[in-house]
């Protein structure tokens, strides 16, 4: 993105930040027992091989860890405003890739036998939209497209989840695919810039 466009985006975010009202009472509330139960049922529906105990544990941990991270990241604002504060050094963490990495690490610590984590990225090839990262949970051996997006970033510390293919806001791609594309793209860009355009 050209420097001028980034500058305009920063001005817009600063204006938005000035209008946003932070939560005075701290991070968003944790998920309810009903929230956990709904996610548990969705995880169970991923396939016949999903262990019910693992589905329950994954759902509980997804909500508990989202709330724990919201406290650690000092979330009091909507996601975009919090991003601005992180990028300005005013908050410690809370960019989407922080959420994705920390959620993936926590869920993988459970050593699930019937569930698998995937990392995904959206908007990487669109210069206008903000790139976004998440973790996706699937039945062991299934692709991320058969899974459930676990996205605590988009609602500013409240867990959003959806079947991957039903997520209307983002078109997800495997993280490894995007990183390989970027590596190739960045190398090509360096060569072009080094050769004078």
TrEMBL record:
Keywords: Signal. The keyword Signal applies. Residues 1-20 form the signal peptide. This is Lipoprotein.
